[in-house]
Amino acid sequence: MKVAVLKGGTSSERDVSLNSGAQVEAALARRGHAVTPFDFDRQTANALVAGGFDCVFIALHGPLGEDGTVQGLCELLGLPYTGCGVLSSALCIDKAMSNRVLEQAGLAIPAYQEHEAREGITGDLPARLVEGLGLPLVIKPTRQGSTVGLTIARSEEEVADGLVLAGRYDDRVLVQRFVTGVEITVGILATPELLVLPTLEIVSENPVYDYDAKYTAGKSHHIIPARIPEPARQAAAAAAELAFRTLRCEGMARVDLIVDDAGTPWVLEVNTVPGLTALSLLPDAARAAGIEFDELCDRLVRHARLRVIGGGEGG
Ligand SMILES: Nc1ncnc2c1ncn2[C@@H]1O[C@H](COP(=O)(O)OP(=O)(O)O)[C@@H](O)[C@H]1O
Ligand SMILES: [Mg+2]
Q: Where are the beta strands (DSSP E) in the chain?
């Protein structure tokens, strides 16, 4: 197949995406596909129109890539593309909207409030947030990834600082109760048969599983399966699958969760273009399930070709 791999782009996860894209290119080439890489910008749209591609592999993370916009472009051009569609991509990038939908489905979501950054931090806002949600609080931009702009606040002052920091990355900020427990992530493939990958426990050398811990070799460790009791593992896998189905995900997604002492799987977020670098979580979980990276990438492009676009003829 003639495959366009979209990577880079303008989000704060640009570097990660360049890395994901490079891995995907190599994998698809090894599988005999003709690969054309694009560092995505507006000109890429013209190249996609003219290029005669069989499929677009979207390896873009974050806004203007993972959020439904590029998926919409591919729909308009009638080009098959990998992974989630427009609606699920747009929902999942928005942690407040996806939380609402997931709560409605009965999933455990840590209590949260949303704050409009442009309204500023007026009067007793930090005090009210602490009163409503308790301490510590997690403060994060509503639409970002890779722990960019995230604070764990242990005092009202830190809440105020956290709101300012997150507000630099998004005009909407999510303030959420801090959950103590084992951090895990559950990858799901649906190409189209749904396969819940083994639970993966994340052990970070840094206090928070932050950008540095995520992307520096040796600063975080993956343990498969997660070291939690079997019933909790099953509950986490079931929660991840319900999240995937509820948000209408397709192809692949990765659900981040924290499992507390009672075994409750608290859902943090759903990533629709999870990292695909050598250090990344979903490829590792797939490998543990016997699906090597090349096979994973190949399945995603084959699924893209099978899928009907926009209710029409498709590929
Ligand atoms: N409510 C929470 N309680 C405890 N830790 C959290 C919470 N929300 C986020 N974190 C920590 O911050 C990291 C990043 O948060 P997440 O919601 O997954 O956003 P993203 O990965 O898109 O930046 C998580 O992996 C976790 O370590
Ligand atoms: Mg995450």
A: 2-7, 34-39, 55-58, 112-116, 137-141, 151-153, 172-177, 182-190, 194-196, 200-204, 220-223, 251-259, 265-271
Which of 215, 220, 233, 251 is an active site residue? 215
SS3 295: helix
41 tagged catalytic: no
Does the domain at 91-108+180-302 match CATH 3.30.70.20? Answer given as no
Question: What six digits make up the tokens of 157?
Answer: 């002052």
Q: How does pLDDT run across 126-153, given as a tens digit for each residue?
A: 999 999 999 999 999 999 988 999 999 9
| CATH number for the domain whose boundaries are 112-177 | 3.30.1490.20
Q: Strand 55-58 vs strand 34-39: parallel, antiparallel, or unpaired?
A: unpaired
**What does pTM read for this prediction?**
0.96
User: Which of the residues 8, 13, 88, 250 is marked catalytic?
Assistant: 13
pLDDT at 145: 87
Instruction: Indicate if 254 belongs to the active site.
Output: yes
CATH classification code of 2-83: 3.40.50.20
Q: Is the CB of 176 under 6 A from ligand 1?
A: yes
Centre of ligand 2 to C-alpha 145, Å, is 6
Q: Which residues, at least 6 apart from 49, have a Cβ–Cβ distance to it below 8 Å? A: 77
